[in-house]
Every structure is written in structure tokens, then in C-alpha cells.
Amino acid sequence: MLPAESPEVEPVVNREPVSYEAGRTDEFSLVDLDKLERYRSRYELRFVSPNAYWYIEEGIRVDQGEIEKTAAEFERIIYPRVTDYFGSEWKPGVDNDPHLTILHGDIRGAGGYYSSSDEYPKAIRPHSNEREMIYINISYLQFGSQSHLRVLAHELNHAILWNSDSSEDTWVSEGLAELSTTIAGYGQDFSVRHFLRSPHVPLVHWPLDDSLISAHYGGASLFMYYLNEHYPPRDGNGLVTLMQEPEDNIEGVNVYLRDQGYEREFHDLLKDWVAANFLDDSQGLYGYDSLEVEVEEGRVLSRPDVIERRIAQYGTHYIELGSDLRNSRVKLTFEGQGSVRLLPTEVGEAGCWWSNAGDAMVSTLTTEVDLTSATEATLSYDAWFSIEEDWDYTYLQVSEDGGEHWVILETPHTSDEDPLQVAFGPGYTGESGGWLAENVDLAPYLGKQIMVRFQYVTDDALNGIGMCVAGASITVDGMPNPPNWTPHGFILVDNELPQEFIVQVIQKGSENRVERMSATYVEPGTWKGELHIEPYEALERAMIAITATAPVTRVKASYRLLVENVGE
Length: 568
Hints:
Distance between the termini: 71 Å
Structural class: alpha+beta
Number of strands: 30
Shape: flat
Radius of gyration: 27 Å
CATH architecture of the largest domain: 2-Layer Sandwich
Helix content: 10-25%
CATH topology of the largest domain: Zincin-like
């Protein structure tokens, strides 16, 4: 059962406060992120500091003095700085113990991680370690090194965010976690450089695979750094307000800005941030006080040209004007598609019921079915899905008691593979590869009044675009009937969203200038605008920046840019 459906389970496993002493050994459940399987290993508690237990995996040698030195820095610098600025992890937590458990060992497949499953009792999450925990791979990170300390600060922020707003989107979560390392005094890492070489990656959508993953970390980190520098909290509580904001993703940033008295919204910051990543002017909005930043990706145009490309939503293409164009009067004509699909598939005129997308979410689509007089009954529907494989699932369920209890049904296209043992039963996970036709025999429920529902459940890290259900029909004794759905989180969609762009010309020289194209929709469904660029004395570089900004969808957008030389 889901945590929200298990009120009888006590959230804290120890009635009385507990505290451990150094010298004990304990066995813990871990995840091999390379092989996607669980395993168990024993760890020795080598040191206890005021806020943490310091465990080392058996068989790994770590100098006791180095453990105590690192623990001292954690207590003196990392823990107070991060918690003062971002808030606290759950204390005393699921184990009724104020200490954070930090495991150091051969953590397979990651430099470190935090798992929210450990925050639940085993009755809800059977593989929970029932502690607030951070896992650190000291086969990859040298114990006590700067990298080790950075990962500690990063993962501590994840524990805090789970306690503050467990449903926050991954890009915000990772951006804030990276900002923690700066707040703790350890600066930015290599991921920012990776982003500056690949600014076309989408800011607000995290990939399900590891493609350009460092660039994604760098982009999220740099945006949160920019937000914190130019729009710092005014309420004296650090970024606790943002961490605790129930709204997620872009809207969460909007609420934070309003709450702090800034008359700005996310997309205003996005425009300035895109310019800042090229100009890096430390004197204003278009730069950073203490970072050296400049995008490295960019096509250079040496003569008039037509550019036709596809761009990821909330990614940016930088196109530089060569010296001949830069020092001439130039006319830009931009045409972009006026709408974009929500899902990368056709849904038909009737649309489909979309599960929605997000982290730590549960959405349902429910109907009542009267089979009290039926002699045969079948549920048929078409399913399309893109779901984080082996972590998130959509279930088809039936209830015979008005929704008090639910049974999960298996279909030809659900998966009963559960390598991480997080599924509640067979479900849809991974990629459907197209629309799948399902026919489910409801014979076991003949003579009964039942409820049927789809339930989409995601964890708190990474998510796909979700699932869509189309053409559903319940055929009773040969008579097909469309279900009367009650949605909670699911949305009936026609698969079309408005597509918008931000087109900017950014000039660097004796003075820095940023001009933005005003554009309108024209028939047939095109986003179109023009802009004239005037050269000026001591102009050093000129860059065109194009950003696609359709919300929710992960489908790329197409555009056409005409660059013309119209004279000196």
C-alpha cells in the first residue's frame, strides 16, 4: 500500500528515543545503481558526532583520525551552514534519533546518494533502513577530500528537501543541492563547465538516461546560483521559503519571487540568465559576482544565412555573428512553430487521459462499473507510456468495496519484473514504443459492483512524461460503454500546447546590450518576429540566443532563422 493509504502504520519506528555508540556493526540494504539490484552489506560505526553516525563498510580501511577530522568539519562547517540556509532534515525522524546515518563504502554506481525510502517504516518500504541516511562511495571519493565534503553537503540538502517538499522537480532539487556546496564553502564543480559547453540541454527536464548528465547538473546549479545571487531571500530565513514551497518547478520559483517582494517571474530570470551566461557582467543582472562564466557552444555565422534547427524546451542555442556581420546592420527574421505536441505520439480527435508528470506523485483515473446482472464483461483501452523504468509504475486496479481496498490486475503489457522491489505489483513501466491495445477480462467480478482505476505512482527522483489512456470501453454482455471517469491528477488532453520562444541579441563591448525580439502568432500557427541589429563602436562580440519555452512537454520545437546583411 502507498504511504498515503496506510494511516494505521506509525511513521516513527521507535517509541523511545535511541542513541548508538561507536563499535557496533549493522547490516544495511543498498542499491547497486549499475546493475539495478539490491544487496546487503555490513558497516561498523566508527565515530559519533553531535549530528551524525559515521559508518565504514567492513573490509575497507580508513584512518580513525581522518574520520574524526572529517566529522569535525562536517559539524563545524557543512551541517550548520547548510541547515541554517536551507532548513533541517527530519529530526528525530523515522528512527526517533537526531543523528543522520552516513554510510561510507563501496557504493556501486554513484559517488553518493540519498534515498527517501529509508524515511519510511519497513511496513511501507520493506527495504527501508529506517533511518535518515546518506550513502558515500569512498571507492570513488577519497575520504576527507574536497570532493567528499562537497558530496556530503549535496546529499544533506536532498534529505532537507525531502522533509520540506518531497515532490519538488529533479532540476530544482539538484540545483539547490549543488548550491549547498557553494553555501558550505566548497564552490562550483566541473559540471558548470560541461553545461557551458552544452547550453542546449533543457533546464527544467531531467533525462531518464545519463546523456549529458553533467551538463544538466551544471545548468541547474548555475540557475540556482544566479537566483540566489540576484534575488536573495529578504525574509532572513535563507532559502527555507523556497525549499518549503508546496508549488513545484517553475511555479515554485514564481511563488518564491512574489513572497520575497520581487516583481519578477521565472521567465524574466530565464531571459537574463541566458544573457548572463554569455556576458558575465559582474556589474549587473547579466553576470555573476564570483564566477567566471561564458558559454562555449555556438555556431559562428560569417555571412548571411538561413538556419533551420530543432531545439529542446528550455534549452538555448547560441549563434554568434562573425566580424563582417557583427560590424554591419543586420536584420533577423525568426519563424518558429506556434504549437507543439505534449506527447511524442498521435492521440486522435478524442484525445487521451494523461497521467500528468512529476516526482513523488500519485494520480488516479477511476470509474464505477455495475456488473451485478452481467454475464460477461471486458475492459478495453489503448495505452501509451514513457515511465522511469523499474522505479515508477502505472497500475490497473479493481476494488470490490467502494475503494477501501484495491487489487492490481495483470495485463499482457504490464511488467511483473521488479528488480528494485519497489513495485506494488505488475504495472506499466519503461517505454511502450507506441500505442498498445489492451483487453482485460472482468469475469472474476461478475455479479458485483466494482471500481476500476489507473494509478500512476512516481518516486522522488526522475520522472518520464507518464501514461496516456485512450479509447477506453467497458463491454457488458456485448454492449460497449465509455467509462465515466473521475480524475485525480489525470487530465484529458488533445496533445497540443502553445509554443513560445525567447529570441535575444546579446552584444558585448564597451557597453553590453541585450535586445529581445517581439513576436506574434501568425497563420498558419507560426511564431514570427523581426529584429534589426545596429553595430556600435568598440563592439567585440554579438550573439543570438534562442530559447524554446513550451511548458510541460519534452518534445523539441522547430525554428527557422534568416540572417540578412542590410548595409553598413
